[in-house]
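Dock adenosine monophosphate; give full complex structure.
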Amino acid sequence: MRRFISITLALNLLLSLTACFGPPVDPDTVQESIQVIAMDTAMLISTYGKRSTAAAYASEDLIRDLEAQLSRTEEDSEVSRLNAADGRPTEVGPDLAALLTAAEEYRADTGGAFDITVAPVVSAWGFTEDSFRVPAQAELETLLEKVDGSAVRVERTAGGCTAALAPGQSADLGGIAKGYAADKLADLFREYEIPRAIATLGGNVLAWGDRPDGTAWRVGVQDPARPDEQNGFVGILNLKNSFAVTSGGYQRYFEEDGRTYHHIIDPATGYPADSDLTSVTVVAEVLPPDAEQLYGPGTMCDALSTALFVMGREQALNFWTSRKNAFDLVLVTKDGEIYVTGGIAEDFVFDEESGYAYPVLVK
Ligand code: AMP
Ligand code: MG
């Protein structure tokens, strides 16, 4: 009996020793994943490393905090207060101040294709409250009179910042807020010394570092013709330390009288953009931290993916040619073509089974 006990003890000791001194676990491969339903989308954040759990929870807090400030449907949010102020200045925190500043930069840069003051038009089509309808032309014309992002003012005061729209205007940050959230996640991963992570915020992806085996993260570019197929890709982007943001009419739309109306509005017409593109993916590298910068490449990718979708193929490619070092593109056209710009030519792996023509390389 005693022998049996001592054998069991020895066995237990051995087991616990194996647990303590077993094959060493690489701290960089410890993983945590968290799903967050926020900003009208399902988000998935997977972090690696010793502080992966703390970073994942902090990521959720960050996103919820941003949503509480930026949501247009929550009455108490900073954006709702700004929209309700009918032109009077309201106090805004640093995040909303940064976003309004960024939105104006990209509005000016895209000739007005990106404009957050398109908000009342987005609402008239029912995209804000999921109550879809086709507004009358006269209604759209009245609403369009208020669309002009150049009227938005942001001012620094002794106590912080104020912002004001023109009377009757309102702002919708749905085309840029997730990209800003991705920029802030990059800052958070840096702060928590996260070696690698992948964050998918709707169509906004942050591929942080590389995969545990040292290879690039694989980010699928959805086939706009097969929006509901989980692996229905036109190709895969192999990315390290990059943002990739996709905009497309297939992401949100409704049908009426046999026509499809999507959620990306052309501020020039008030109608869903009559684009020859079905999706635009903008890719940019994560940049080193810069205390002077209020927003980063994630914000840029988000604003530009929306704007370039509105612009259409030709203008989008001209825009890229004039700014080619800042970002890269994958464009999918209604005609079944794919365009990939020079900087990611090697990183885009085309799916030959997808039925699309072989990608055109744009240099
Ligand atoms: P995204 O998915 O980033 O392309 O953004 C689309 C969302 O941005 C829409 O659901 C609207 O809330 C908003 N939006 C629509 N059209 C525009 C536009 N031309 N400029 C800025 N925001 C827009
Ligand atoms: Mg966008």
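Observed: The longest strand covers residues 277-285.
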